[in-house]
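Bug #77: duplicate submission created two jobs. Keeping one. Sequence:
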Amino acid sequence: MPTFAYRAVDAGGKIVEGQLDAPNESALEARLRQSDAELLRCKTRTSRRFDRRRKVTRHDLIGFCFHMEQVSRAGLPMLEALTDLRDSITHPGFREVLSSLIISVEGGKKLSQAMEDHPETFDDVFVNLVSVGEETGELAEVMTKLTESLKWQDELMSQAKSIVLYPAFVGVVVISVLLFMMIYVVPQMVDFIREMGQALPLHTRALIAFSNFIVGNWWWVIPAPPLFFLLLSWSAKRDERMRYRVDSWKLNFWYTGPIVSKIILSRFASYFALLYSAGLD
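Kept job's structure:
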């Protein structure tokens, strides 16, 4: 089903923009009319897979949960709460998601049902917890727990990145220095070493041969590693078997494997505790 980016005017004369999934333009127009909105123009939305500016981040979800907790405790109507939040944020991707939620809720859906239309933003755990909160009347409490969980995940990922970032930076510096020596320093020392007239030891001959190889093939040796990782990432996104293989490599890698495993176990335990405390069977 195609996704349409639309521009419409609501019953109050205010211009609203967003995106909705619909079989065709007529179905989109009918759905907007159910929410007292008139379609002005629309177009099929192209894929924005690589547009990071439109990706909803964990920080955006933390703000969303905090806002929904506050308005739920204050007794503000759901539509009004979503509309106020949409009008107050500047993130283009999240504005589109909130506009779609508003349209769906106006059409008679529950908030959790509307969230199911955006799996790239709200995962199954998030949607199920919101559904439990709606059924039990404890939506504010659920949003509080979601806020705490998302903050914990954000802090955990920040710590993990800081652990991995320093060795990665050192590795890049070491490789850069090694390439500089092989391409510039060693070739300048070769003539001096050979003028000494002595037989070169094996490790010196190996170093010179390696330097000559780098100098003669730098045009593909230097870009090969980043291109390899880009190709691996591209393949993992499109092939499930490759994705499992890459994940297996991540878990078995001697340095990052234990860190990744602990992060996964921590997130599982946190999600399980969150679902159990919310009363989800």
